[in-house]
């Protein structure tokens, strides 16, 4: 892992990707990896987040081992200090030296949204951050879950998120049961950002943290970016202890390498009373059931050739997702 090779610019590099929880980025630089690129995250004196190549231009030391001094990032090796713009402004060995423009660190686009720090490696103003409509709903409480480090590709994780046929086996007693595994027909349509799957029905013993009885639950899935998906759940009201309960869950993935990923879930729920830990524990239980199965899949990269794996009509959401990735010329995490 090293400096970004511009000659190998990929579609993925123009996308926005989550790399860290905003709350985890405080006064200390943080090292992260995105698309095999090592980055350093840090905050300046105004609290603004920055993402740079994690390599000092002087002698190649990791800037993430340094510290923030008076709103500047200081290299741990020779103490060179860099302004928020990435320009070196102080060389301790030469106090009177004015560093030229060439003495600078490569910087990247940064945004903070949904409780996460997002980075864009290749500038492209036409590419927005993935949408999560429920974030703007003041009647829903927002909770971040994760991160989870998973030894598989980002597309494998998205496909699992879209898949209902595994509920009765991987999530038996929770999101499914072996006695009710049939998948009724549902609708899938392409969208500019991916796909929309509606009329997705599942019989679930415990569909959410407030479930009191098994119920038929209607799901809506939306892929809003190559590595981002959102689901909305509407359970039978008689099966939920909390009146008016509804929820929307976003899956946000950082593609670390083609075969490793970091995952967050953003919950938006009509529940302002439960502690964060209760909501996070339920999501943790579900994803920990998924994780070993995801990590067992081979190849770890998602095959886009329709002949590589067999399919049924129950898989039409995942098949549509694979077609979308191919159409968008996504190459990172697929094969």
Task: Explain how this protein is built.
The model has no long low-confidence stretch (mean pLDDT 95). 14% of the residues lie in helices and 33% in strands. A hairpin with a 2-residue loop joins strand 12 and strand 13. By secondary structure, the protein is an alpha+beta fold. It has helices at residues 154-162, 167-170, 276-296, 316-327; strands at 17-21, 30-34, 37-43, 49-53, 67-69, 72-74, 81-82, 88-90, 107-113, 116-120, 141-150, 187-191, 194-204, 215-225, 228-235, 247-257, 260-269. 40% of the residues are buried. The protein contains four helices and 17 strands. The strands form three sheets. A seven-stranded antiparallel β-sheet has the order 11-17-16-15-14-13-12, with helices on one face.
Short key terms for the protein model shown above:
335 residues; alpha+beta; seven-stranded antiparallel sheet; six-stranded antiparallel sheet; 4 helices; 17 strands
Please summarize the sheet with the most strands: 7 strands, antiparallel
Number of strands: 17
Structural class: alpha+beta
Instruction: Classify the beta-strand content into a percent band.
Output: 25-35%
In round numbers, the mean pLDDT is 95
How much helix is in the residues? 10-25%
Return residue spans where pLDDT drops below 50 for at least 5 consecutive residues.
Answer: none
Shape: elongated
Main sheet: which strands, in order across?
Answer: 11-17-16-15-14-13-12
* H and E order: EEEEEEEEEEEHHEEEEEEHH
Determine the number of helices (DSSP H or I, runs of at least 4 residues). Answer: 4
- The radius of gyration over CA amounts to 22 Å
How widely separated are the two ends?
A: 20 Å
